[in-house]
């Protein structure tokens, strides 16, 4: 080979092993992952250019040498990584598929077609038991006993000031907005009485309009126009990579940093759009308080104005992402159960009547807050169809921790899958059946209340929980007072139950219903 005398393959192979043990094993994927991935991607080009242009090596020899040298190095890295994950990793004693213990891409591959992270995890728990290694450093625990230990208030982090936007008094000030958007939804459904309506779509319009109004001071006009808005579509497009690569968050970080035009990078597109909306909101001064009023009142966190803008934008985007499809998913499932069994609506109406609540101004956040059956229906839908079904990720603490008789070493990522735990027979009798009475008159059907944690727990739990309940109570009570609801022809709800995707929050599938106005 012109210019190259022999190939130092064993040396490069050993170098690969050493760099895995000395460097790669120690990096924090979310922090240094994208930089390392980039370095590994461009390294072969650098080797090639160096050989070709700084030595006398010919084109073919330079390309061959680059491939063989780099291949030997990467082979060393991979052999070391796979051997470590199989024989030495802290989670090696936990059951799970062999391929999952070697690479997180095994999980991604197995959920790519149906985007069903949570139901895939559910199947793994049925096969391997309560503790399953679902990735090299990722442990899923489905024992209800661990919910408090993993998510309880043990963290030292504190909440930031904008949590003021979710205090009881701030939430009451959102009452008129929620009522206004609920009324708009009802008006639109009234116009479509007797025809087939995709309830999932309309409930989505409602939930996004409420969150747009609260986060940016303006709706997406989805309810008004009866069609989706580019922002909603972009959020949903952005959710797809999260659903697919949620267990490999470092890869998402890489996608965000890819120098692709925003038009083909949904996450960057979303970030840019939110920035524009926040800038618009800052220029306006809405008559009624919204969440952004509280965020702005909390004052500036950074001296650097770009950092401040970025914080505001991500706060506002987080609100819309976290607060829309979650609430919409629960509402759609409640309406599915109402369509499936008309006695549910009858019982809800009876409870409203007993409390002298009619379809008028008597339905307020306060008057609806403590109706046991209404809350039970919502909770039972949240139990069976948690909007964040795969659970959220936590790192095990320094020194490791013993949970439910198993030791989890320090620095492992742990998740408790809500879908599986909330349907565990250890915690609920007839766990797969929709029985709202378990939350009211039949408490014996609940064995372990701690296993119900759809909003997560502790200081990192959902800040929008009460807002979500307020929205859901408002819509459900008005809907049942106004309409009789039934499945449209050809609909049985199976699409909703089987085709809903897990994109961290739910990508809810369609539900065709017919609404008929009730005679007073
Ligand atoms: C049925 C409706 C909802 C459910 C089931 C739900 C559930 C959750 C869950 C499980 C988390 C993750 C907590 C963790 O990491 O452990 C979360 C976080 C969050 N939720 Fe909700 N959520 C709902 C509605 C809302 C609404 C309406 C808002 C609007 C303000 C909201 C705002 C947030 C925010 C901002 C976070 C991030 C909190 C943080 O990182 O500190 N959520 N939610």
Automatic annotation (TrEMBL):
Keywords: Heme, Iron, Membrane, Metal-binding, Monooxygenase, Oxidoreductase, Transmembrane, Transmembrane helix. It comes from the Eukaryota. Pfam families: p450 (PF00067). The chain crosses the membrane at residues 6-25, 37-55, 67-88. Its cofactor is heme. Belongs to the cytochrome P450 family. This is Cytochrome P450.
């Amino acid at each position: 080979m012109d210019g190259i005398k022999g190939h130092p393959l064993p040396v490069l192979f050993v170098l690969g092993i050493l760099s895995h043990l000395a460097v790669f094993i120690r990096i924090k994927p979310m922090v240094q992952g994208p930089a390392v991935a980039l370095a590994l991607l461009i390294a072969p080009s650098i080797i090639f250019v160096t050989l070709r242009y700084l030595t006398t090596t010919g084109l073919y020899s330079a390309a061959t040498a680059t491939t063989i040298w780099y291949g030997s190095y990467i082979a060393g890295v991979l052999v070391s990584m796979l051997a470590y994950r199989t024989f030495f990793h802290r989670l090696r004693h936990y059951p799970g598929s062999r391929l999952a213990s070697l690479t997180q891409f095994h999980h991604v591959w197995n959920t790519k077609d149906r985007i069903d992270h949570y139901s895939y995890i559910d199947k793994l728990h049925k096969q391997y038991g309560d503790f399953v290694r679902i990735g090299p450093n990722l442990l899923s625990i489905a024992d209800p006993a661990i919910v408090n230990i993993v998510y309880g208030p043990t963290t030292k982090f504190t909440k930031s000031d904008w949590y003021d936007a979710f205090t009881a008094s701030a939430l009451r000030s959102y009452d008129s907005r929620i009522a206004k958007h609920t009324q708009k939804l009802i008006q639109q459904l009234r116009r479509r009485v007797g025809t087939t309506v995709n309830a999932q779509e309309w409930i989505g319009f409602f939930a996004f309009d409420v969150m747009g109004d609260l986060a940016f001071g303006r709706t997406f006009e989805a309810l008004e126009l009866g069609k989706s808005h580019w922002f909603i579509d972009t959020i949903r497009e952005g959710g797809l990579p999260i659903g697919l690569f949620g267990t490999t968050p470092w890869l998402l970080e890489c996608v965000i940093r890819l120098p692709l035009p925003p038009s083909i990078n949904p996450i960057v597109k979303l970030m840019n759009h939110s920035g524009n909306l926040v800038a618009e909101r800052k220029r306006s001064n809405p008559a009624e308080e919204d969440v952004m009023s509280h965020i702005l009142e909390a004052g500036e966190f950074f001296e650097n104005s770009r950092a401040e803008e970025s914080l505001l934008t991500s706060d506002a985007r987080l609100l819309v992402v976290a607060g829309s499809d979650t609430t919409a998913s629960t509402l759609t499932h409640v309406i599915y159960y109402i369509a499936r069994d008309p006695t549910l609506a009858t019982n809800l109406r009876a409870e409203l009547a007993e409390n002298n609540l009619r379809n008028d101004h008597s339905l307020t956040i306060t008057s609806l807050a403590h109706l046991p059956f209404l809350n039970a229906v919502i909770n039972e839908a949240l139990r069976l169809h948690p909007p964040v079904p795969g659970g959220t990720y936590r790192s095990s603490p320094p020194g490791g921790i013993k949970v439910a008789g198993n030791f989890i070493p320090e620095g492992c990522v742990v998740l408790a899958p809500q879908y599986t735990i909330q349907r565990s027979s250890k915690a609920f009798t007839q766990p797969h059946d929709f029985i709202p009475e378990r939350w009211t008159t039949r408490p014996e059907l609940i064995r372990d209340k701690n296993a119900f944690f759809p909003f997560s727990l502790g200081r990192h739990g959902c800040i929008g929980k009460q807002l979500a309940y307020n929205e859901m109570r408002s819509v459900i009570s008005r809907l049942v007072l106004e309409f009789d609801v039934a499945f449209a022809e050809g609909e049985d709800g199976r699409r909703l139950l089987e085709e809903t995707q897990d994109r961290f929050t739910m990508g809810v599938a369609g539900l065709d219903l017919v609404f008929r106005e009730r005679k007073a």
